[in-house]
Amino acid sequence: MKGADLITPRENYEAFERQFLCEYACLSGETKGRERPVVKCEYRTDFQRDRDKIIHCNSFRRLKHKTQVFLSPTGDHYRTRLTHTLEVGQIARTIARALRLNEDLTEAIAMGHDLGHTPFGHAGERALDALCPDGFRHYEQGVRVVELIEKEGKGLDLTYEVRDGILNHTNSKAHTLEGYVVRFADVIAYINHDIDDSIRGGIIAEQDIPADITDILGHSKSQRITSLVGSIINKGIYIEDGKPTIGMDKEINDAYQKLHRFMFESVYCNPKCKSEESKAQNMLAKLYEYFCDDVKAMPPLYVLLADRFGKERAVCDYISGMTDRYAIDLFSELFIPVEWKVR
């Protein structure tokens, strides 16, 4: 039986947020809302609802077959965009909880932050950026995915704060501290799991990381993540240029920057890691050219997007949503001759 004055689980949790979260947290009961009016869920806050919408969407499931760093790795334990996303979410929630920020908003942003990524990792992003007249940036594409592409063009109708976090997860422009948390969680996750994958792939060894880095951050993935996360938590929320923000202390940040440079020199620019990138980029260039010449060969949704936004942008929408495997199979279907069979 439901009385008129019965407090719903959502309202109860919104009250908990107002009582427990810090003064700089984004409260779910005070969201700037969605683009389309919607009846509130009885059980979940708006940010919890957004997290669930993202996790249940097609683009999220496709992340499991999208490259993180290594193209077409043969082992089962290399990261994909999906496992990267889950690691970002775990790190982001730890930071948000410790700082008494909105954990649900943080998790929703983390789950959606890479929905706009292309097949073949950043190699694919660079290929589409060079091909599309307006350029291509995965964080902007992520917003297109949740607003224009998902649910057969209806979009997920996410709250402003989640869309803002997706758009700004690679810079310092997020309008919420929860968005800042995901930005830091993203870099903490990828630098450490890329080290892990590089060691597994025989690209580097743990001993190759300079001692002036490991002596500060730690000699294992777990120690490094703890050092980086702990630095943000221990420094806490502070005011900079009149606005609340978060960050690492100088010693930890300097060590992280050195680690980042080491990874670029030893891994990200290593010919062994990048040997297949040109093939992947040429493949996407051929697909781009093919569908620009024959827009109606794309699924109906992308034909409609071509009418609204131009064929080049719609082709980028279509290709960026592909998994590595789908792009390879489609390329083979369109450009590789089928073996002659005698009947």
Write a compact overview of the structure shown.
The chain is mainly α and 343 residues long. It has helices at 9-20, 46-55, 58-62, 81-98, 103-112, 121-131, 138-149, 160-167, 177-200, 211-217, 221-235, 250-268, 271-274, 277-293, 300-309, 311-320, 324-335, and strands at 238-240, 243-245. It starts with 8 loop residues before the first helix and ends in an 8-residue tail after the last helix.
Would you mind describing this structure in some detail?
This protein is an all-alpha fold. It has a single domain (46-334), classed as Hypothetical protein af1432 (Orthogonal Bundle), CATH 1.10.3210.10. The chain has 17 helices and two strands. The protein has helices spanning 9-20, 46-55, 58-62, 81-98, 103-112, 121-131, 138-149, 160-167, 177-200, 211-217, 221-235, 250-268, 271-274, 277-293, 300-309, 311-320, 324-335; strands at 238-240, 243-245. Strands 1-2 form a two-stranded antiparallel sheet. A hairpin with a 2-residue loop joins strand 1 (238-240) and strand 2. Helix 9 (177-200) runs antiparallel to helix 11 and helix 15 (300-309) packs antiparallel against helix 16 (311-320). The longest helix has 24 residues, at 177-200. The protein is flat, with a radius of gyration of 22 Å.
